[in-house]
Amino acid sequence: MRCYQAFEHYARINIRELGLTAPQFDILTTMGGMPAHQMTPKELVEQTWITKGTLTGVIDRLEAKGLVERLPSAVDGRSQIIALTGKGKKLIDKILPAHLAYIGRIFTGFTPDDYRAIETTLGNFRQRIHAQEPDAK
User: Could you read off the pLDDT of 96-123 as tens digits, one per residue?
Assistant: First the structure.
């Protein structure tokens, strides 16, 4: 848990320097990874750790910055599609490589053996978690 918290803190420093909050960055990068650069609010909730209640405010702020827009759904007139604007796409294209390079710095110095040991340990941890799930028994 401490390792995760340290990683999140480290990442958030850079995200703030980029002028975004972590949820805003999460939404933009998630949408940026989609072929059409658009998603429904439900899809965004499912693919990020952002709750439905928080999502509305995050989208409002991104829309105010001109990075996303709300479009009516062609499938269901009551629904909306959240789409990256041209400005949003340009921002992601600019900041994502820089952020990945920033994150990559913490991995310099690890050897292939280090990576294998980490992968093995985390894999064992994941298996133990799954073994404790109610449907696993």
Answer: 999 999 999 999 999 999 999 999 999 9
